[in-house]
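Hey, I'm writing a tutorial for new members on how sequence and structure tokens pair up, and I'd like a real worked example in the thread rather than a made-up one. If someone can provide the structure for the chain below, I'll link this post from the tutorial.
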Amino acid sequence: MEYYQKTVVPEESFVQTILVNNKKLNLVNDDKRYIDYTNAIAGSPRTLTVQDYATITKGNFHFARKFDLKQDAEILDKLDSLIFT
């Protein structure tokens, strides 16, 4: 705690450091995100399309990235209908 009082941007690692070092917690290294870096360009993930729908919905994911309405709005419509029905 004393170390963080003297840092410039403590919020970038404070929570993670405190949680990881707390022996009472059992942290799991699974962020529940679907991100596809296949053929990544400059480290940017591939834009997801309707072809990814089955993978996204059958997996254990709470989040997915990245989408582009101009490239494929249908995937977002399908995910919306799954969530809001």
